[in-house]
Write a structure and sequence with these properties.
The structure holds 2 protein chains of 2 kinds.
Chain A lengths: L3 E2 L4 E5 L4 E7 L6 E7 L6 E7 L4 E4 L2 E6 L4 E6 L8 E8 L9 E2 L3 E6 L1
Parallel strand pairs in A: 2-11
Antiparallel strand pairs in A: 1-3, 3-8, 4-5, 4-9, 6-7, 7-8, 9-10, 9-11
Chain B lengths: L3 E4 L2 E4 L4 E8 L5 E7 L6 E7 L2 E5 L6 E7 L2 E7 L7 E8 L9 E2 L3 E5 L1
Classes of the chains: A mainly beta, B mainly beta.
Chain lengths: ~110, ~110
């Protein structure tokens, strides 16, 4: 059973508009969430994260929102640029400590059209 | 050399072959991981090593055999694989505990089993 779900396998957005990528999770023990970005022929790279004590974290054009009651998080990219075209993975982490591995979603492929 | 380096980038092998994937990290991290990425599936954790000790084996078949001779190197030995083992194998490293769960990935080794 998938604990982290990205229900949209793909998303197309016009350059300059907002991209919204969604992620749902089932495990209420998750307390830290991350987004990774992956280009073809490259490994995923860390993009942005959020702790469960917050509901928003912003870094430049990227903002992650967390709704704990709905077990839902989203990544907003604004304005979207062609270079943002990639696969975006949502990941979650639960305590208590140490290297408890991340649980990943299947990813959403974002295409930003010029 | 920087980051996490994986070799080979591409590997084609028959079901009776024995081959190895290599990962090297130059980040001074203490934890290393093998992940498997199959088409339309989430990233699947295979193995975790902390300070050269295996701390997790995520129900991986014995035809995959990891080796971690030191905290900078990680191998995945492959033998008598099946065609369904064809996938992208990603190595990652991290330096716990802060930030939790943040992984640094290599570019991956694309494996095709004939």
């Amino acid at each position: 059973d998938q604990q982290v779900k990205q229900n949209s396998p793909s998303l197309s957005v016009q350059e300059g508009r907002i991209s919204i990528l969604n992620c749902d999770y089932t495990n209420s023990m998750f307390d830290y969430f991350l987004w990774y970005k992956k280009y073809p022929a490259e490994g995923p790279t860390f993009l942005i994260s959020i702790s469960s004590i917050k509901d928003k974290n912003e870094d430049g054009r990227f903002t992650v929102f967390l709704n704990k009651s709905a077990k839902h998080l989203s990544l907003h990219i604004v304005p979207s640029q062609p270079g943002d075209s990639a696969v975006y993975f949502c990941a979650a982490f639960s305590p208590p400590s140490g290297n408890t591995p991340l649980v990943f979603g299947k990813g959403t492929r974002l295409s930003v059209i010029a | 050399e920087t980051g996490v380096t994986q070799t080979p980038r591409h590997l084609v092998m028959g079901m009776t072959n024995k081959k190895s994937l290599k990962c090297e990290q130059h980040l001074g991290h203490n934890a290393m991981y093998w992940y498997k990425q199959s088409a339309k599936k989430p990233l699947e954790l295979m193995f975790v090593y902390n300070f050269k000790e295996q701390t997790e084996n995520n129900s991986v078949p014995s035809r995959f055999s990891p080796e971690c001779p030191n905290s900078s190197h990680l191998f995945l030995h492959l033998h008598t694989l099946q065609p369904e083992d064809s996938a992208l194998y990603l190595c990652a490293s991290s330096q716990p505990p802060s930030p939790p769960g943040e992984l640094f990935f290599g570019e991956g080794s694309r494996l095709t089993v004939l």
